[in-house]
Amino acid sequence: MALPASVDILNSERPKRVVIVASNPAVSEQTGWPIGFWWAELSHPFWEFTEHGYEVDVASPAGGPLQGDAFSDPRDKSGYSAEDLISLGFINSPAHMSLVENSKPIASVRVDDYDGALFVGGQGPMYTFWSDDRVHALVTGFYEAGKVTAVICHATCVLLETRLSDGRLLVEGKTWTGFANSEERFADDFVGQKIQPFWIEDEAKNLDKTNFIVSGRFKPHAVRDGNLITGQQQYSGRAAARLMIEALGT
Question: Across the strands, what pairs with 37?
Fold first, then answer.
C-alpha cells in the first residue's frame, strides 16, 4: 500500500537521527585510574552530524552522567588534548553538556527511531562494552536492521564478541579496523605501564574469516564495509562520522 503523499513529504523532510553510545564511568583494573569515554570521539562526530542537520542523542549502557578520560579533556593539566577546541567548546556549553550529564540508557534506545549509531571509544569500553550483552545486542540490532553502524577506537573491542542472530561474528567476512598495537605500545611507553587488559589488534588477528587492518600510528583512518564503519583511534572519529554521512546523506 502506498503511503499518503503527506507522509512521504514528512519522511523526506525528517532530519537524520543518530545516537552516539559512550561508556559509563569505570575504574581501570590495570592502572586504577577513573576512566570513561574519549572526548574527541564524541564531540568531533557530534559536530559533523549537527553541521549536516542531523539530530543527535547520547546514550550509554546504564544511562546517567558520563565522564571523559582525563587525557582527552582539553582542560587537563597534562595538556595532552589542549588543542582540542571542539571538545572545549562542547564542555563549556551547558546545552551540550546536558547530553553527557543525562545520557539515555541503551534500554530506552529504539533502533527504529534512528538512522544510525556510533559507538565511541576511550579507556572505558574495554571494561564496559567488551563483555556487556546489552551493548552486543544493540550493535547487532542496528546492523541487522540495515542501519549504519559505526564503532571507533577501543569501542571496537565489542566487535571481538558481537554475534549476529545466526551465531556468526558480525565481523566475519568484514574488513575493519581498531586501536593498533603500535598505538598501544606508544601509550604504554608514554605513561610507563601497561594500560589495557588486552590489545584489540592481537585479539582480532586471532579470529578466523575476518580482515583486521590498521594504518599509520595515530593517523585518521576509517573503513566502511557495507553498513559497518570502523575507526582506528581517537583521531578517526571525524573520518568515521563523514563515512556515516556519506552513507546516510542529508
Answer: 68
Torsion of CA 166, 172, 174, 175, to 10 degrees: 150
d(CA 6, CA 24): 41
Alpha-carbon gap, residue 52 to 250, rounded angstroms: 6
- 15 forms beta bridges with none
The greatest distance separating any two alpha carbons of the chain, rounded to the nearest whole angstrom, comes to 64
Q: Residue 190 is inside which H or E element, if any?
A: helix 181-191
d(CA 212, CA 202) in angstroms, rounded, equals 10
pLDDT given at position 13: 76
What pLDDT is stored for residue 148 in this prediction? 98
Q: Which residue has the cell 585479539?
A: 203
Instruction: Report which residue type is found at 129.
Output: F
* Residues with Cβ within 8 Å of residue 90, at least 6 apart in sequence: 39, 42, 43, 46, 96, 97
Distance, C-alpha 1 to centroid of its chain: 38
pLDDT tens digits for range 100-115: 999 999 999 999 999 9
